[in-house]
Please model this.
Amino acid sequence: MKRLLLLLTLLFITPHLFAQQDLDDKYYFTEALFEHLSDYNKKADAAFRANKYEEAQELFEEFTSEQLAGSYMNNFKFKNLRNREVELYDFNKPTFLITYASWCIPAKGEIPAINKLAKEYSDKVDFVVLFWDKRKTVKKLSDQFDSEISVVYVDESENNGGYVVKQLKHSLGLPTCFLLSEDKRITSIRRSVFSGPATDLETAYQKNYIALETSISKNLVPEYDEVYADNVSVD
Model:
């Protein structure tokens, strides 16, 4: 009888142990930040102090592509506009996550581009806009976004979102766009496309749309695009 109980116990526990081991084997975004962010900040700060903005941008691209891409985004918690808690892993599709705040001016033409892409890719990609703001402010700002986009927020004044604020906001600044695979592996991290003040709205919109669509098709739905390309005839 004791042997039978022991066998049943092992059969019940073992799958859970392996599942936990698989989870622990993943390399997470927060781990990558802990290991590499300090070194990146030193180099980037030096470049900005010397007014070497192109070098600073190159450092950002190198840091995000070589040190952060490939890691798994942590299951951060936010709140939706109904004031209910939402977890990042609640979004089951590949995810386009971009961060904003009321004091952060989006790139000219960026929001219309995101809205159009959300309509085009809503069946394949979850679009999530994360605000660092109070709920009342976020509700007003949410009117800018298409209904296919999930708007969530973290209110720093509530003093209970310090962990997510430190990791997602203070690490890379904002706005920052994270492209996440279905299992929330980071495929790419990118900045907004800021056009010069003299650029007209339509041109700025086109630049943002092309840049964002290229990132989405390359990093989130490449299989779909390959199938689509194979079925398109060229005269």
Notes: The chain has two domains: 27-70, 72-235. Confidence is low (pLDDT under 50) at residues 2-21, 224-235. The beta strands are 77-80, 85-87, 95-100, 126-132, 149-154, 176-180, 186-191.
